[in-house]
Design a protein that fits this description.
Elements (H helix, E strand, L loop, with lengths): L8 E11 L26 H13 L4 E5 L13 H8 L4 H14 L3 E5 L5 H8 L4 E3 L19 H13 L4 E7 L5 H18 L2 E8 L16 H14 L5 E3 L10 H6 L4 E6 L15 H8 L3 E4 L5 H6 L4 H10 L18
Helix pairs in contact: 5-6, 6-7
Amino acid sequence: MLAESSNKYVTFSKNVFIPVTNVCRNDCAYCGFKARHLRDAYLLDEAEVLKFLRGARHRGATEALFTLGEKPELSREFPQYKDWLKELGYSSTLEYLRALCELAVREGLLPHTNAGVLSYEELRYLRDVNASMGLMLETVARVRAHERSPGKRPELRLRTIGDAGKLRIPFTTGILVGIGEAFSDIIASLEAIKRLHEKYGHIQEVIIQPFLPKPNTPMCNETSPSIELMKRVVVTARRILPKDVAIQIPPNLVPLERLKEFLELGASDLGGISEVTLDYINPEAAWPSENELEAAVKPFLLRERLPIYPRFVRRGWYGERLSTLIERYSDEEGFKRRDVNCNSNSG
């Protein structure tokens, strides 16, 4: 099944990737996003975020993807972070993040937040200003790459994903392939996601993401998973996951000329594509253009979606604060309208 309404389609969204802060309490052995030195650490201010948002809106994007280090206030390396927040007028990252989501909505974009492990109350606090949210499970295995990362404990991440289900938040999760897990761990991770979706029905998509080595990290000399292994994982995911859960392959992380092979095996989504920003998690991997994607997936047809998947649009799994934008941008099936003008303020 390659899309919710037709096996001809592969879906994607147009977004802007906003890296709110690279300060993080975790210290994953493969991560090139986290700041390692004070000179490299940052917290974007509202003017910087507004510039991102307006640039994206003028390019027709509908999604504001907010990504940040997990619980940066708990970072031992950068105690200065709390002072940076105070200088911006906020007492917590969560408070600031909500303000940024509200800013995105005012600018006509639908927020999708990926802030790491969050509690039930924290998810509820952000729910009404997010069209969808996300958290990579990565793996249920205890791997060496996560030894210095308290937020990568599988039970914590599964609890966050489950709490999102209790709150009826359309949710994106995924697995990271090649960080020291066995194939049996991949199966166990997919089955854990399946169980949560069967209980709450809130998982939109599962990302199958390959590990890519980053310079100056402990895993810089490790190798990425092979295309054949990635294809095997996609086949396994499609067998295990419920049919209404899409499988996403990030098109900037696999060879573009091999992308169609994953679609033929059951992948159905390409995630968010930004014309304004890098993939700050994988900055060496440039986003392909929409035209390049269109050529790469033939004979499949591209179909644009919102950050909230069509079935959740049809079910009304969104709050009043987002209803004007979602109803403006979505067609009768819940996909992105082809005739909509996103290059205008929401008012």
